């Protein structure tokens, strides 16, 4: 029906926009992960001091590594969502319907623009 086609095109348009938003979110997380890395790699900047002590803590992860790892996990989750959305949009476009194809193109364009 006509209403079903309009709804399908709208859903594909929104999925394409969300795909582009996820792509930009991954880029932002990558930038933050790189900023979390220290500029110099001296031993004092890599390890946090023990509580009540003044020497470096042995066997503990550095602060920057924990921050970087959190950003890396976020990037991984964004990547999984991006792949799933990409395949969904690809399968919709492979229905060989011109309106759905135009909805995917319009959504990708709008998502990139925003």
From TrEMBL:
Keyword Transmembrane helix: yes
Pfam assignment, any one: Ctr
Domain of life according to the entry: Eukaryota
Signal peptide: none
InterPro entries: Cop_transporter (IPR007274)
Membrane topology annotation: Multi-pass membrane protein
Cellular compartments annotated: Late endosome membrane; Membrane
Keyword presence, Transmembrane: yes
Spans traversing the lipid bilayer: 6-22
Keywords linked to the UniProt accession: Copper, Copper transport, Ion transport, Membrane, Transmembrane, Transmembrane helix, Transport
A molecular-function term among this protein's GO annotations: copper ion transmembrane transporter activity
Assigned GO CC terms: late endosome membrane
PANTHER family documented for this protein: PROTEIN SLC31A2, SOLUTE CARRIER FAMILY 31 COPPER TRANSPORTERS
Family: Belongs to the copper transporter (Ctr) (TC 1.A.56) family. SLC31A subfamily.
Protein name from the UniProt record: Copper transport protein
């Amino acid at each position: 029906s006509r209403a079903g086609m309009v709804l399908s095109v709208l859903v594909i348009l929104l999925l394409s926009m969300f795909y582009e938003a996820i792509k930009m979110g991954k880029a932002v997380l990558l930038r933050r992960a790189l900023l979390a890395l220290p500029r110099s790699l001296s031993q004092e900047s890599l390890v946090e001091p023990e509580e009540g002590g003044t020497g470096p803590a042995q066997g503990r992860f550095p602060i920057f590594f924990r921050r970087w790892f959190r950003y890396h996990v976020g990037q991984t989750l964004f990547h999984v969502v991006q792949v799933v959305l990409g395949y969904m949009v690809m399968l919709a476009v492979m229905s060989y319907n011109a309106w759905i194809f135009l909805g995917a193109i319009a959504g990708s364009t709008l998502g990139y623009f925003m």
